[in-house]
Amino acid sequence: MKQSTRTSWHFNLISAVLAFLLWGGWAFVMNSGESVNRGLVAGLTQGTASFLITLCMVHAVTYLFHRFEKPLVKVVLPACIVICFTGFCLVNVHTLMGTPRILVTILPALMVAFSFCMFTSWRLLRIHQQQGATQYE
Predict the structure, then answer these.
(1) How many degrees, rounded to 5, is the angle at CA 59 between CA 74 and CA 95?
(2) By three-state DSSP, how is residue 136 classified?
(3) What's the Cα-to-Cα distance from 19 to each of 24, 43, 45, 48, rounded to whole Å?
(4) Best exposed site among 68, 79, 96, 98 by fewest CB in 10 Å?
(5) What is the pLDDT of residue 70?
(6) Where are the transmembrane segments (predicted)?
(7) pLDDT at position 17, please?
């Protein structure tokens, strides 16, 4: 019986809370120069989006990880796909919320998210290999 490789709920939740705090704070600082209200809206928007996206990213990376065969593809391609989709969603949400400095707000988060996706895929690959599923075709 093939066992599915996943990250723990504890890892997922801690990652999401840290994403909310870090990127919500970043968005507040980057957008509060115009007004505190704009900074709060941008911060809450980015914080909430980062929390939700982090939870979804882990599941998306895990799902995509299991769809590919070769180790390098299993690690790199899920990160690329997830970050492209995430960037598209963030630009649209911040545009709807009226965030003044969208690119400055989301670009650092996307760069870290890409690294996070790569790290998550790498962890999944390590777990997958430890379970004895080291044969790739």
Answers:
(1) 105
(2) coil
(3) 8, 12, 12, 9
(4) 96
(5) 93
(6) 9-29, 41-65, 72-96, 102-125
(7) 95
Please write the tens of the pLDDT for every residue from 77-110: 999 999 999 999 999 999 999 999 999 999 999 9
Residue type, 109: A
Q: Domain boundaries in the chain?
A: 9-130
What average pLDDT score do residues 13-19 get?
A: 91
Q: For residue 47, give both structure tokens.
A: 């914080």
Q: How far is CA 36 from CA 23, 28, 42, in A?
A: 16, 8, 10
Retrieve residue 53's tokens: 């996206």
Calpha distance 42→94 (Å, rounded)? 7
Tokens of residue 83, six digits: 């970050």
Average pLDDT over residues 10-24: 91
In the chain, alpha helices (H): 9-31, 36-65, 71-97, 102-130
Unique residue bearing structure tokens 């809450």:
44
Burial of 32 (0-12, 13-18, 19+ CB in 10 A): middle
